[in-house]
Description:
Chain A has 113 residues and is mostly beta strands.
Amino acid sequence: xxxxxxxxxxxxxxxxxxxxxxCSFPSSNFYALHWYRWETAxxxxxxxxxxxxxxxxxxxxxxxxxxxxxxxxxxxxxxxQPEDSATYLCAFFSSGSARQLTFGSGTQLTVLP
Amino acid sequence: EPEVTQTPSHQVTxxxxxxxxxxxxxxxxxxxxxxxxILGQKVEFLVSFYNNEISEKSEIFDDQFSVERPDGSNFxxxxxxTKLEDSAMYFCASRVLAGRGDTQYFGPGTRLTxx
Lengths: 113, 115
């Protein structure tokens, strides 16, 4: 059973603060790591697909880094806005089972105005 | 922008009844998936489907579950005889290819409540 962990479980920040959260995953048999943003009653929205050690990806104020050797990825949000409030999920593809995503439990972000 | 759609958004059924959850994947996608999330737990993989057959399934996906692509657009998940523990949010996903950098796109989910 693959173990994908996210921390913190929840986070409250003030509008304008920058924040980051962590996804940890098995460092062996790495294939890809996905980040999703999920608002209640909506489809999880794909943010990034990360495949190479040292990858850094950016989408507006959101960016992510990847360290496959130590088995972690960080998601950063710069200058948080209330509309960033959502659950952020990471999901891991193992090379041993590349057809299924294994999800973390998510980080629930609330940005207070 | 194309999106994955799912119907119904909420289904309530009695234990022992059959349910069919429906999904319309993005039109040029070739790989299809079902996941579920029991309340308070992680999203779990159920099954992947390609070229009209199951390519991988989890331990959860037992004989009570089946999937079908009955026409060129729909992708369905059938639960033959529902149990209380089948109550969950069921997500459909699709992707165009199964390459390493390919994104998996999710639908909004169907909440299944088994009474």
